[in-house]
Amino acid sequence: ALFQKELHENILSFWIKYSIQKDGKGFYGAVDSKGNPIPGAAKTSVLNARILWTFAEAAKNFNNKIYGEIADKAFKVVTNDFLDKEHGGYYMTISSENQPLDTIKHTYAQAFVLYALSKYYELRSSSQLLQQLKTYFDFLEEKTKDTEFPGYTEAFTRKWQPYSENRMADNNEPRSMNTHLHIIEAYAAYYKVSQDNFAGKRLKELLLLFMNKIIRPSGHLGIFFDKNFNETESSKAICSFGHDIEASWLLWEAAEILNDKEILERMKPLSIKILDAVDRVGVDKDGGIFLESTRFGSHVRTNKHWWPQAETLVGFMNGLEVTSDKKYWDKVKLTWNFIDNCLIDHKNGEWFTKVNRLGIPYLVEPKDD
After folding, report:
1. Beta carbons of 275 and 319 less than 8 angstroms apart
2. Residues near 10 by beta carbon (within 8 Å), at least 6 away in sequence
3. Cα(313)–Cα(318) distance, rounded to whole angstroms?
4. 9, burial (CB in 10 Å: exposed 0-12, middle 13-18, buried 19+)
5. What is the distance, to the nearest Å, from the Cα of residue 206 to the centroid of all Cα atoms in its chain?
6. Nearest to 232 by CA among 151, 178, 171
7. How crowded is the C-beta side of 300, counted as CA atoms within 13 Å?
8. pLDDT recorded at residue 1
């Protein structure tokens, strides 16, 4: 009941009230803490795909007409305003006037669109939408899958030439864990609705890639890799706690959707190993999760950003469901208390972007963080 109250009365209601443009045609790129639109703020395909996914899931789950209408609006925005009608794929950012800004095609952003469209299909299933999904999946496979090395190329020019300045990696490494985690998420969502055998094959390859190459023996995830998925030296010192705990449930969910016996048997204990690894070193006594550690764990960045806290709730809930061990439910409650006491903006609505270790919100982004 607490979670549902937060979802309906604070989060979704805030987005319905403040994110929709006055002309009703789309969503603002950004609003301030009081919900006022920030003039000229660029719009991103990742945010709009997430709006589409969220309201489609909420409409389906709660049979809510208003949520469905917002999902319909987001579908139009994503497939009209962000689509590159000339070269295919979706722009990373467009201006407040819906003109292309960043025309680099990040595989990460393309994956979010496939993920959102697959969820929208669950709400508004039609043969036309399923064909649109299949066409887009095949297009992504043709453009982004590396035919020579494992995995997917990170970024491309507008015309789909490989682009080495991919900017999703610290030193422009050729492969990142984060991009591949979201490709898995998207491919699992697509496979769930399509049962496309080829998508299932690719999903299995990706899960094996995580199990064999990306997840370290410690249970933490590697961050950046060369083309053969050997972790780069500078990456080995870093743990990203939010991604670790996100992967603990997301990879298990993908394995369940694939429903391959060998993968399920390997992934189940591994998902708990990842969860316990991050719990051991990344979760504070108050239930809040730190952002990351560097220098092989000798330096912990103790600010607590909003998204890893949300992942922590889901991660511990998944731990409870997989193991039936009540200790994970105690951790869910502890993390929720931290979120409720420190991260939720009970005055203006929604959540603060991040708080410090003691739970004090940053109202302005610190320069050196």
Report:
1. yes
2. 344, 349, 350
3. 9
4. exposed
5. 16
6. 171
7. 14
8. 85
Residue 167 has pLDDT above 70, yes or no: no
Structure tokens at 231: 């972790």
Length in residues, the chain? 369
Using the predicted structure, report yes or no on whether residue 367 has a pLDDT greater than 90: no
Residue 21, Cβ density class (10 Å: 0-12 exposed, 13-18 middle, ≥19 buried)? middle
Residue carrying structure tokens 């109202």: 363
Contacts of 136 (CB under 8 A, 6+ apart): 113, 114, 117
Q: Does the pTM of the predicted model rise above 0.90?
A: yes
Examine the pLDDT at 216 and tell me if it is beyond 80: yes
Give me the helix-helix angle, 127-144 and 107-123, nearest 10°.
160
Angle at CA of residue 16, ends 10 and 19, nearest 5°? 105
The residue to which tokens 């998508």 are assigned = 199
